[in-house]
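Pair request: fold both.
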Amino acid sequence: MLQLVNVGQKSLGDYATIAARGLMEEIRRLAEPLAGRRVVHLSATAFGGGVAEINYALVPLMKDAGLDVEWRIIGGADEFFAVTKAIHNAMQGSPQGLTSEQQETFRHYNALNATELEDEYDFVIVHDPQPAALIEHFPDSRAQWIWRCHIDLSHPNPDVLAFLAPWLSRYDGAIFHMPEYVPRVDGLPRAYIWPPAIDPLTPKNMALSAEDAAYIVDQFGIDVERPLLTQVSRFDPWKDPLGVIDAYRRVKAEHPEVQLALVGSMAHDDPEGWDYYSRTVAYAAGDPDVYILSNLNNIGSVEVNAFQVHSSAVIQKSIREGFGLTVTEALWKTRPMVASRVGGIVAQVQDGETGWLVDPESPEACAEACLEIMRDPTEARQRALRGKEFVRRNFLMPRLLRDWLVLFNLLDGNDTAGAEVATVAAV
C-alpha cells in the first residue's frame, strides 16, 4: 500500500520562455519561506485521468522550487475501487447511493491505507474522494491537510455527500475548480478556487509537426488524407462516447469521407471503464471509419498528441466535466474545439471566440459545430489561435504551482502580500 511514484525531474527554468511575464519571479519569492517543507500527495492511481497527469508535472516542479515532496498511491482490492467509482458517480449527480456494506468497504480500506502513512509531513494533499477518510486516523497530526477535488460537485447526491462530509470537515482547506462546485454543507473548511493546468513540455503537449503527427496516426490505420474527428477521454458514460458516435454519423451524412477516433486510457481505479469500452465498441457497429483506441493498442502520450494535432476538430462531448484537461490540450495545440457547455469547460472555451460550446444532450448541435469547422477552416483556425493564447495565460503548469505556493504560505501564516492569491469562497 501507499506506493511511492517516481516522477523524475523537472526544472522551472525550462518554462521561462513559455510562462506569463513575471510569474517565475513570483514563484521564486513564494517558494523561499517554504524551503524544505515536507509535502505528500495521496491519490488513487498513477495512470489515467487528470490527477495523475497533473502530478507527474506538479510534484517535480514543487521539488525544484525547494520543497521535499512525495506522491503516494493508495491501495485496495477491486471491491474498494468499485465503491469509489460509485462515490465518484454520485458526487457528479448519480441518484444511486451507497449500501451499508459499501460504506464499510470504504472505511475499511481507508483505515488500512492510514496504517501505511507516516505522520511526518507539513502538508498532506488528498486528491478526490478515494482517500478522503484517511484524515480520521490522524487526529493529532501537525500537518495541514488539504482536500483537492477534481470532479463536478454542482449537483451531488445528497446522501453520499453527507456520508463524506464528516471527513471533509476535518480538513484545513479544500480546493475546487469552480465556485459552483463548493458543496453547501455546514462545517466544511475554507474553499479555494482555482483551475488545473497542463504541462506544455510533456510528450503529450510538446510541439509536434503536422508531418510527424500524420506519420504516427497513420500507424493506427487512419487515412491521413481524409478529415478526422477525435475525442480523447476515458470510456465513461459522463464523457458520452456514444453521443460522439451519433454526432459523427450526422457529420458523415454530409461528408462521407470523415473518420472518428475515440482515444482513451484504462485506469486501474475505474472498473466500469472496461464495460463502457465494450459498450462503445458495440455501438460503433463495425463501422470501419470509427477507431476506438486505448493504451491496449499502444496509445500513449505521444500518440494522443498526434491524434489531437492531426484532427480537423477535437470534441469533448461530456455530460458532466470537472474541468476537462483534454480541452486545454487541444486548445494549446491550436485545434478547433467543440465541447459541451458544462462544468469547467465553460471556463476554457469562449463560444464563438476560441471554440464552439454546444448542448451536452444534443448530438445534432455537436455535429453542426463540426460541420461549421469543415465548411470554414480559416475561421476555425482563428478561433483556435485565440484559444492557444488563452491557455498560455491561464492554464499552464507554472500558474498551478504558484497557486499551491500561495496556499501553503497562507496556511503557514506567511506574508503573501503582492501575490495573486487563489480566490477564496466562503462556505
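--- second member of the pair ---
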Amino acid sequence: MWSRRLLQVNSKSSESNLNYPVLIDERLHSLLFSVESADAAPTKQQYEVFENMEKQSQALLARYRELMSKDLPALNEMVNKQNIPALYVPAGK
C-alpha cells in the first residue's frame, strides 16, 4: 500500500526501527533535527537529501490526492445509497 512507504505504522516503540524500515516521515524528522540543531545554514548534502525525499513523496502525495478527490466521494456515494452517514475530511488535510 502506498501509505506504508510514507509512514511506518508498525512502530510501537523507539526500538521498532530495528524491526521495521525507516520511511520518509521518520527520515524527514531526522533531517529536520539535524538542520535545526546546527548553528549554520543547511549543507549541500542536507538539501540533496531533502530534494530526494521530496521527489519520493510526490507520487505518494499524488495518490493521496486522487484517493481524497475520487475514491472517498465514490465511497460516500455508495454508502449514502444505503443511508449510512458520509465520511468527511476537512479541506487541506
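Observation on the second member. Residues 33 and 39 are 12 Å apart (CA to CA).
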